[in-house]
Amino acid sequence: MFITPDWPKPKNVHALCTDRLGGVSSAPFNSLNLATHVEDNPKDVFQNRALLRSQAQLPAEPIWLNQQHTDIAIALTSQTHFNTPPIADAAWTQSTNVVPVVMTADCLPILITDNKGSCVAAIHAGWKGLADKIVTKTIQSLPVESIDLMAWIGPAISVRQFEVGQDVFDAFVNQNEQNRAFFHKKIGTNQKYLADLPGLVSLEMQNLGVKQIYDSQLCSFENEDQFFSYRREGRTGRMASMIWIEA
């Protein structure tokens, strides 16, 4: 049902990423779809969320976002309550037992904590959000120094499968010439590239001063039995990546 990140997090910080297994949703959302916006049966989604909370022993219901590939990161506290999910693509907190969460199906899920376990964040970054600096803006909003942070990159589409056009190449290379190294021109194609999203975000975080970066190296596209993939299937479910500070 879920994957535990392999990183040297503080003992009071807990993190996990779900896969697509162990839920109740029917195809094409089979089976642990956690998203309400993909035309799955809402009753199944809420049952899946209840299963997740029980199986993972979450301290509270995760604070779900209305993700729209924005550059918006919101701060959460123990008093935070939304009647409807807020439009944002990242969330962070210093409060205990508050669970920031992001959903993905090829985009980058990035979980962040500091070495002392005083602050945690969850970021959703597709190429649009990454180009709009959602990661930079989130990290710069945190009340800790970047050198004290560590990050984990969860299951996402790998460079082997992520074909993009000239527009995506230009968006990144025009920002930083170093980004050119993470685009590989496809042989026999005109203005088509294979883009390395984990590589791009790792460079961005390193340039911000984040030195502890751990990549799961799990490809959502290639592992069909384990993960949802929007690029592979189109109509499909979503995994969730979450992190929290234990009281």
From TrEMBL:
InterPro entries: Cu_polyphenol_OxRdtase (IPR003730), Cu_polyphenol_OxRdtase_sf (IPR038371), Cytotoxic_necrot_fac-like_cat (IPR011324). Keywords: Hydrolase, Metal-binding, Transferase, Zinc. It catalyses: inosine + phosphate = alpha-D-ribose 1-phosphate + hypoxanthine; adenosine + H2O + H(+) = inosine + NH4(+); S-methyl-5'-thioadenosine + phosphate = 5-(methylsulfanyl)-alpha-D-ribose 1-phosphate + adenine; adenosine + phosphate = alpha-D-ribose 1-phosphate + adenine. It comes from the Bacteria. It holds the Pfam family Cu-oxidase_4. Belongs to the purine nucleoside phosphorylase YfiH/LACC1 family. This is Purine nucleoside phosphorylase. It comes from Thiomicrorhabdus lithotrophica.
